[in-house]
Amino acid sequence: MKKAGAEKKRARRSSAAVKNSASRDPSTDTPPRKQANKKDVFQLFAEKVRDHKDLVSRWAVLQETRVEYFRGKDFVTFLRNHPELKDILESDRNLEVEDIVNVLLNKNLLVRCDRVVKTVRPGKRKLSTWPAHLEIYPDQEFSDNDAFFAWTFVNKRPLWQTLLSLTWPVLTLAICLFPVYPHQAKLLILYSCAGVLLLILCLLLVRALIFGASWILLGRRIWIFPNILAEEATLRELFRFWPQKDEEEKPKLTARFFFAIVAVLAILLLRHHAPDEAARARYQRRVSNIIDDVLEWDPRLALSGMMDSMQSEVNGTETNETVTDGGGERPDESTDEGVDESTDEKDLYNDNI
User: Fold this and answer.
1) Phi (first) and psi of residue 93, to 5 degrees
2) How far is CA 236 from CA 58, 129, 149, 300, in A?
């Protein structure tokens, strides 16, 4: 009986193995190494696409974390213009764009996001093209209809960024050692920093004047260097000169006329209360004295001044001790001197009479 049962189990196992081998597709039967390589292939594809300059992307805040994201329709256009990037996927190079993005979503290389603000703000015609705040979309599937996708992996840091991060401690130490620099080096640093600060202030002033003049006269909002004050922008976006198309409604004529009157009154008020030449001279003298104190400071002079102050304190202490020791005789002497001085004054007064 035991032998018959064992033979039945063997027959069942052999029949199951035959069925599995018959139903198995040899094209999908890949060893573990090839499957691991396929995962690495999609990782390489994601890194290559992210580093490509033609894929338009922006930075935003997703759950208190800054992420780099792109739009679904831009990704479709990007792969249509660069089909050679699909060769990185090897056997999956013939996949459609939707399938590729879905695979990246399943591998947690991407996450689909949605804008936090879903209503048009007052004064604007439509929603922002690139929102600054995102949230995770519940349906993690590809779509090119106002869909955003953020990269979830940490991109490799370039060599220049690593070298730049190493220079920050050196720069901090150099700033702390500014008082001991030579006089010429102090002058160079001072004039360089003052020039950069003056350039920034002039740029902001010209920017505001152009905006005010265009808004009052033309009814258009023209901000040159529109991202110069942006908190989250790349270096290329930060120094972009010409603004994008104005998407807000045109201001009313009454509002433009009112702010024109306010601007004229403000200019007249500032001109009336402008400081005179004497006040400007006093302010310039005060600022120059402060700058001279900073530039002329020397550690050797500081040490010598400390030694002089310590020596004066010691001399003052010795003088006080001497006065304390001869305290019984000093009052009489001062009284006699006071009497003599008063007598001399009386004699001089009588002579004059």
Assistant:
1) -70, -20
2) 11, 18, 21, 47
Q: Could you tell me the CA-to-CA distances from 181 to 188, 195, 213, 275, 298 in Å, in that order?
A: 11, 20, 46, 36, 9
Instruction: Identify the three-state secondary structure at position 276.
Output: coil
Total residues found in the chain within this entry: 353
What are 286's two structure tokens?
């005060």
Strand partners, 114: 135
Spans of the chain, pLDDT less than 50: 1-38, 328-339, 341, 346, 348-349, 352-353
Q: Which of helix, strand or coil describes residue 55?
A: coil
- H-helix or E-strand containing 66? strand 66-71
Among residues 244, 174, 251, the alpha carbon closest in space to that of 214 is found at 251
State pTM to two decimals. Answer: 0.51
Per-residue CA distances from 215 to 91, 212, 222, 241, 269 (Å): 57, 5, 8, 18, 22
Q: Which tokens go with 273?
A: 């209360």
Q: What is the pLDDT of residue 111?
A: 94
